[in-house]
Write a structure and sequence with these properties.
The protein has an eight-stranded parallel barrel, surrounded by six helices. The protein has a two-stranded antiparallel ribbon with strand order 4-5. Strand 8, helix 8 and strand 9 form a beta-alpha-beta unit. It has helices at 35-44, 60-63, 72-79, 90-96, 129-134, 151-168, 186-199, 212-217, 233-245, 255-258, 263-276, 280-291; strands spanning 52-56, 85-89, 104-108, 110-111, 124-125, 139-144, 172-176, 203-206, 223-226, 250-253. It is α/β, with parallel strands linked by helices and 293 residues long. The mean pLDDT is 92. The chain has a domain at 34-224: TIM Barrel. The structure holds ribose-5-phosphate. Residues 56, 58-59, 87, 143, 175, 226-228, 252-256 line the site of ribose-5-phosphate (R5P).
Length: 293
């Protein structure tokens, strides 16, 4: 008969310890989603800061060659060390973003308008889920036009993308559009961001506004903030600092980086605010130091 007096279990399963991942996830609204979704979200957002520096270069999808984005092949590799997530179209990404770059990818999947039109609110889902999977996209970005003529079709677009994304665990980012005719008030953004979140997106991209902290509080998933039109670097860093203080999980900045005279230095300064807790003043001093070296 076997001697069991000093029998030891081969592995310690730590049965006395509760499941360590039960306590939640570092991003709000994501805890109930599956591993694949969380993995993509962790590719986009930095676990230590909880935030992301997303670089938006999708402007060409309706504007054509945009000032500052003429040569993506030259620009993107220079910015890459400071970009958590590149946001662009499949055409630009495939043609100009080297696949060796490890930053996450936010793939714009809606399009259909151009700046030659007055009403830009009618888009279609142009990229199917199979191509998003082939491109290893970490999220699919869909523009939503609340209050515009294209509201219904854009909500239909986002719901179809979310449904496909749920099948394959690819997050959807709802991009809150602001047309010429739309008011940029907290009333509008509270309405629009909440409608977009309730559709089931995993993150929302929107704009700064008065009482922005209330917009963030009422949105049950992470918000990233677009930079908007080019403003002086100091003001753009203040914008980033201000929205982070009010609860945004990062920025999705385009023109205020690629139209800066010093885009590489500017994105480094944005990084300091988003990931290292620099104030806007400290980040601007850092930027000035870099450009005068
Ligand atoms: C807008 O539809 C585009 O998605 C841009 O990516 C967005 O506006 C962010 O770029 P910017 O910081 O230049 O506003």
């Amino acid at each position: 008969m076997a001697d069991l007096d000093n029998f030891k279990v081969a592995k310690n399963y730590h049965l006395e310890e509760p499941f360590a991942n039960q306590k939640g996830f570092f991003l709000k609204g994501i805890n109930s989603l599956d591993w694949g979704m969380k993995k993509h979200m962790s590719n986009i957002f930095n676990k230590d800061s909880g935030n992301t520096v997303m670089f938006a270069f999708d402007h060409g999808y309706f504007q054509g060659s945009t000032s500052g984005l003429e040569r993506l092949d030259l620009l993107l590799p220079k910015l890459a060390p400071y970009v958590d997530c590149f946001m662009g179209t499949r055409g630009a990404i495939r043609a100009t973003l080297p696949p060796e770059i490890t930053s996450a990818v936010a793939l714009r999947v809606t399009s259909g308008s151009s700046m030659l039109q007055d009403d830009l609110s009618h888009e279609v889902v142009a990229v199917n889920i199979e191509d998003a999977i082939r491109m290893n996209a970490d999220c699919m970005a869909v523009q939503i036009f609340i209050g515009s003529q294209g509201q219904l079709s854009s909500l239909d677009n986002v719901n179809r993308v979310i449904n496909d994304g749920m099948k394959y665990s690819i997050p959807t980012m709802g991009v809150c559009a602001v047309g010429k005719e739309l008011e940029r008030t907290d009333k509008f953004f509270k309405l629009a961001t909440r409608i977009i979140a309730e559709m089931g997106v995993q993150m929302v991209k929107t704009y700064d506004c008065e009482n922005f902290e209330e917009v963030v509080a009422a949105c049950p998933v992470p918000i990233v903030v677009a930079g908007g039109k080019k403003i002086p670097e100091k003001e753009a860093l203040t914008l980033a600092y201000s929205v982070l203080q009010k609860g945004a999980h990062g920025v999705d900045m385009g023109r205020n980086i690629f139209q800066s005279q010093h885009p590489v230095e500017m994105i480094q300064a944005v990084n300091k605010v988003v990931h290292e807790g620099f104030t806007d003043k400290e980040a601007y001093e850092f930027y000035e130091d870099l450009i005068h070296r």
